[in-house]
């Protein structure tokens, strides 16, 4: 209906079309649904694509929430819509699509059992639209009667007085809101106030009682300043104390209303993303994620928004006043087309949107500050001599063995707290031991030894022309974000690789390994302190969700997830503009050829499937050549799997050969991560390859055969990161490849593939050294010619 109004208005003014629609659809206020019906929830789902969430909403008002993650518990919420949010860009008329989206989000939250209130601007803009039309229509009639049609072009619209516009627009604005909320079986009620209403004690009590009664009846109060009669704001009357705030704009009105009604959350929507440390759009301006009382002294405020009475300074003053009164506040952008459709619900879900006002400062740095520290520390790390970076890693390896008792004690605390909460495979990943720490130390020493010629290695030299030489050299990627689950041994491995490659590093570990991660990070920073680069590796301990971290595209250059396939998929989905290195699944195949060795097959299958079934490089699908069915070799494989208590799932073809088959597989594209395995039958090596390409994940695939020609055909034609002949899938590992360690296994086709070690964390840059060379010298009439000669590469490090 809204699009019909906009696109088919023809010669009829927009305001006339809009008012006609309002009159035809608006429901009388006396017929509103005032109870909290169960069918209201069902109805809102059919109209909304916003996820429906059920959360406990019992909260005693007192102190504001300390962290964003607590906002989901907000029961009573005020949403303030700034003039820039409600109005169109020409300031004459309303942004209907934006308003419809806001009403949808408010309705969803209301139908979750929350108590929603709106403080809205827009009456002046709506009235201006109506009055402009009436004036133009009146002028056109008079001029047509006296001067003829040819002078209509010269008509000018006089300046319209704001109070008159508000009077003309208020009823239409409310009728529009009422019609929109009716679509979600929600009633809305209008309340107009002035500053005097808050100074008169009787009026304050009346207002408070009216609002509470409306909320009790499941009605959404829509509050606005009565701009038709409101007097000018008194100078220097704002923010007199916690009980007084001058209502001179809708920002102060929303703050006053939020405190009067003891609301849990005030959401202030404007046309900027939130509060910046300098005016938005200026060089070096950064969005402030969390704002604390007292921080306003370090902030420079820009001009006010294009419409409305307030600016960002007014919003901050109102927000701090509300915060002091016990209400949490978020200032966010309500106009951005990519986020306005879910900005309110995102805030309530605790997502990192806009600027959150909090009285509780974190004990350590924010994640943004940690990102800056990692960037700065990484750049210093990259300038160290290779021997210095290696010395740091050697020292870390020594600390892992010297401090093993402290490490194992911290790990024991994690295991005790995780007992009964984590599945057995995850507990195994969480556990550290003396042998694991010794293996870690050995791997770190391998990394240190191989890092001597990593950063600054010359890959190519070219003489472009006389005295103009070009070099391509290796450099760090920048700042890495590594997110890992349950595996504390991952921390020193990844830290060593980052140190060797000169990268800054942000680490986000699972809370189940909190004690272990903290001691290991402390030892890492102790090793880094040898050469003054302690800040290059940061452990993120704040409450940021992984999804929020994945949005920090200005701080992070590469995300590397280490964990379950679900974690990897979630990160790949959440990453906004940041490349993700990794694999979402490890569906590894082993093809047993007709010419396979009996002695080798059972050993390879057992090791691949049973040695560590939770690993991403464990066998998941066993492909058997048809000629091996009902042979002693096949029987040996089945007997071995039964002894190892591996549950077998039959593929469709395998099931067709059996009278009594195991459970038929639900999907041939399954990563079990446990003692389970799919068996399927194929007719040839080509059919095995086709199956792998169709159902595999391009991780690791193996052929078992004594026929070299068949094996080479398999090795060359299987398009996976790792392809083996007569070897266990479990060899797909950075340590076993001699890389010292790995940050993960990548199935990507860009940059790095397979186990990613030191080389995968480097990129390149080009260095051009000249002598006053300009491109015009190489033109058709120029004095120089391109040579493009390949030059020998020196065996040295540019550091």
TrEMBL record:
Keyword Metal-binding: no
Record-annotated Aspartate/glutamate/uridylate kinase domain positions: 75-333
Superkingdom of the organism of origin: Eukaryota
Known EC number: 2.7.2.11, 1.2.1.41
MF terms in GO: ATP binding; glutamate 5-kinase activity; glutamate-5-semialdehyde dehydrogenase activity; identical protein binding
Chemical reaction(s) catalysed: L-glutamate + ATP = L-glutamyl 5-phosphate + ADP; L-glutamate 5-semialdehyde + phosphate + NADP(+) = L-glutamyl 5-phosphate + NADPH + H(+)
Subunit details: Can form homodimers/multimers.
Name this polypeptide is given: Delta-1-pyrroline-5-carboxylate synthase
Native organism taxonomy: Eukaryota, Metazoa, Chordata, Craniata, Vertebrata
């Amino acid at each position: 209906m809204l699009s019909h109004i906009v696109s088919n208005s023809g010669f009829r003014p927009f305001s006339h079309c809009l008012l006609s629609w309002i009159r035809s659809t608006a429901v009388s206020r006396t017929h509103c649904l005032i109870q909290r019906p169960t069918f209201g929830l069902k109805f809102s789902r059919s109209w909304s694509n916003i996820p429906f969430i059920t959360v406990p909403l019992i909260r005693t008002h007192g102190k504001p929430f300390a962290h964003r993650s607590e906002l989901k518990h907000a029961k009573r919420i005020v949403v303030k819509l700034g003039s820039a949010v409600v109005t169109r860009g020409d300031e004459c008329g309303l942004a209907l699509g934006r308003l419809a989206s806001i009403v949808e989000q408010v309705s969803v939250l209301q139908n979750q059992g929350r108590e929603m209130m709106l403080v809205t601007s827009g009456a002046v803009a709506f009235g201006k639209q109506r009055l402009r039309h009436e004036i133009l229509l009146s002028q056109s009639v008079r001029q047509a009667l006296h001067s003829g049609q040819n002078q209509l072009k010269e008509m000018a619209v006089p300046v319209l007085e704001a109070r008159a516009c508000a009077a003309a627009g208020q009823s239409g604005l409310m009728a529009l809101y009422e019609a929109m909320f009716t679509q979600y079986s929600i009633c809305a009620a209008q309340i107009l106030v002035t500053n005097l209403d808050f100074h008169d004690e009787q009026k304050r009590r009346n207002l408070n009682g009216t609002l509470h009664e409306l909320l009790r009846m499941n009605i959404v109060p829509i509050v606005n300043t009565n701009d038709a009669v409101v007097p000018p704001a008194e100078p220097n009357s704002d923010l007199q104390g916690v009980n007084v705030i001058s209502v001179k704009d809708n920002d102060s009105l929303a703050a006053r209303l939020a405190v009067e009604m003891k609301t849990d959350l005030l959401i202030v929507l404007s046309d900027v993303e939130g509060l910046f440390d300098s005016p938005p759009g200026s060089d070096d301006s950064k969005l402030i994620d969390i704002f604390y009382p007292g921080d306003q002294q370090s902030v420079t405020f820009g001009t006010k928004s294009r419409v409305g009475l307030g600016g960002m300074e007014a919003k901050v003053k109102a927000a701090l006043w509300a915060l002091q009164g016990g209400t949490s506040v978020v200032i966010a952008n309500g106009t951005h087309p990519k986020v306005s459709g879910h900005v309110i619900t995102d805030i309530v879900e605790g997502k990192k949107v806009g600027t959150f006002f909090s009285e509780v400062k974190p004990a350590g740095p924010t994640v943004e500050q940690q990102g800056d520290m990692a960037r700065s520390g990484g750049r210093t790390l990259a300038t160290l001599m290779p021997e210095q970076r290696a010395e740091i890693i050697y020292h870390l390896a020594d600390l892992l063995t010297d401090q093993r008792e402290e490490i194992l004690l911290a790990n024991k605390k994690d295991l005790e707290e995780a007992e009964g909460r984590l599945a057995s495979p995850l507990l195994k990943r969480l556990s550290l031991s003396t042998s694991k720490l010794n293996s870690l130390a050995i791997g770190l020493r391998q990394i240190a030894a191989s890092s001597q010629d990593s950063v600054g290695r010359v890959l190519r030299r070219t003489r472009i022309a006389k005295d103009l030489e070009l070099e391509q050299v290796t450099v760090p990627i920048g700042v890495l974000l590594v997110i890992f689950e349950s595996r504390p041994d991952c921390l020193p491995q990844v830290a060593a690789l980052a140190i060797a490659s000169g990268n800054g590093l942000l680490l986000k570990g699972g809370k189940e390994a909190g004690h272990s991660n903290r001691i290991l990070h402390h030892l890492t920073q102790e090793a880094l302190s040898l050469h003054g680069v302690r800040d290059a590796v940061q452990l993120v301990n704040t409450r940021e969700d992984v999804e929020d971290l994945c949005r920090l595209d200005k701080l992070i250059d590469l995300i590397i997830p280490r964990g379950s396939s679900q974690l990897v998929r979630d990160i790949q989905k959440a990453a906004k503009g940041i490349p993700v290195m990794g694999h979402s699944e490890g569906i590894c195949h082993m093809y047993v050829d007709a010419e396979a060795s009996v002695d080798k097959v059972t050993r390879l299958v057992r090791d691949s499937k049973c040695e560590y079934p939770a690993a991403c490089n464990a066998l998941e699908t066993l492909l058997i050549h048809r000629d091996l069915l009902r042979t002693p070799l096949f029987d040996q494989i089945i007997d071995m799997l039964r002894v190892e208590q591996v549950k077998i799932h039959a593929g469709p073809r395998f099931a067709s050969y059996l009278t009594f088959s195991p459970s038929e597989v639900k999907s041939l594209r399954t990563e079990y991560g446990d003692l389970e395995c799919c068996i399927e039958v194929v007719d040839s090596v080509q059919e095995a390859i086709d199956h792998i390409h169709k159902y595999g994940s391009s991780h690791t695939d193996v052929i078992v055969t004594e026929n070299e020609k068949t094996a080479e055909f398999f090795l060359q034609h299987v398009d996976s990161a790792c392809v083996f002949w007569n070897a266990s899938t479990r060899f797909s590992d950075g340590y076993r490849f001699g890389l010292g360690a790995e940050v993960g296994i990548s199935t990507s086709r860009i940059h790095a593939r397979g186990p990613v070690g030191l080389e995968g964390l480097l990129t390149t840059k080009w260095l051009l050294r000249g002598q006053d060379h300009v491109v015009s010298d190489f033109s058709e009439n120029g004095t120089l010619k391109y040579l493009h000669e390949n030059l020998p590469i020196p065996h040295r490090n540019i550091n």
